[in-house]
Design brief:
324 residues; Rossmann fold; Helicase, Ruva Protein, domain 3; 15 helices; 47% helix
């Protein structure tokens, strides 16, 4: 692909980011990170208290990217078939035959609202879709539309009636993003849009085909050996059994990040370089994506909880210890 076409793609992505910013006040960092995940072909877990616009963000992204959108409200009584779809018995030529009725998971962008409210059985219905981009019902496997990604939300402060996502499922999210409360000025702008007759006109900027083309370009992007080694060193440093890991890892981490974390860091670092208008991955790209790529993949021990240490504290220390 020639340089002119690549530049046109970069311009389109930047225009997409700006258009999303019209509908979502503030959260610029979150918007950029979600776009990075989409370009890197990954799923995103958005964590934040209710009312911060997580659902609206996902809906706005699907509008700007001209993709099909589906929302699943996870509740304790939701069944796997409510997510994936089911076989229905219909009359055909006088006979009863099974016909598959696709569920809400058959969309380009699927919003899993409050995913930790569903039972593990229903949560697991998303595992195949998130990893293999397929759904198996009975003996038949169905391909999901491309591009496909899951954007799931969860409330960190509510524990009653919730089922924490197991490590295997968390690992299938390329990023975990923490959605913060808006500033006073941003809150005022949100009021101007939501409690008045003022309307925000969101225009489509990209298509699903554009996303697939950009993903091809990003996958072909080279990465220097030194930068790759740096990324791998960060992932290895999350393992307490590794002798060269920093003391904070040995003291507070029970289980380190998986190889999927390394994949996430490299893929999203390439996507960030692309969004910055570069065709080479820098050490800064690796540092930028380290937090959202690793924070949900570190299993901390009880000592970390009692000392008030979270995953981001550990990642900060690792980035300070690993030499670029």
């Amino acid at each position: 692909m020639d340089e002119k076409m690549i530049q046109e793609m970069i311009t389109k992505v930047k225009a997409c980011e700006e258009e999303i910013g019209k509908g979502i006040i503030g959260q610029r960092e979150i918007i950029r990170q979600v776009i990075l995940a989409i370009l890197a072909d990954g799923n995103v877990l958005l964590e934040g208290v209710p009312g911060l616009g997580k659902t609206e963000l996902v809906k706005t992204i699907s509008k700007v990217m001209s993709t099909t959108f589906s929302r699943i409200q996870f509740t304790p009584d939701l069944m796997p078939a409510d997510v994936t779809g089911t076989n229905l018995i219909i009359k055909q030529d006088g006979n009863n035959v099974f016909q598959f009725e696709p569920g809400p998971v058959f969309a380009n962008i699927v919003l899993g609202d409050e995913i930790n409210r569903a039972t593990p059985k229903t949560q697991s219905a998303l595992l195949e879709a998130m990893q293999e981009k397929t759904v198996t019902v009975g003996k038949t496997t169905y391909e999901l539309p491309a591009p496909f990604m899951v954007l799931a939300t969860q409330n960190p402060i509510e524990n009653e009636g919730t089922y924490p996502l197991p490590e295997a499922q968390l690992d299938r999210f390329i990023f975990k993003l923490l959605v913060d409360f808006p500033t006073k000025e941003e809150l005022k702008q949100i009021m101007n849009i939501t409690v008045t007759n003022e309307k925000v006109d969101i225009k489509p900027v990209m298509t699903g085909e554009d996303i697939l083309s950009i993903r091809t370009v990003i996958r072909d992007m080279p990465i220097a050996d030194a930068v790759m080694d740096y990324a791998m060193s960060i992932v290895v440093a999350t393992h307490p059994e590794n002798n060269s890991s920093p003391e904070i890892t040995k003291k507070y981490v029970e289980v380190g990040a998986s190889p999927r974390a390394a994949q996430a860091i490299v893929k999203t670092a390439k996507a960030r370089a692309f969004m910055e208008g570069r065709y080479n991955v820098a050490f800064e790209d690796i540092k930028f994506v380290a937090y959202p790529s690793l924070r949900h993949r570190l299993a901390l021990n009880f000592e970390a909880v009692s000392d008030g240490i979270n995953a981001d504290n550990v990642i900060t220390e690792i980035l300070e210890n690993v030499q670029s």
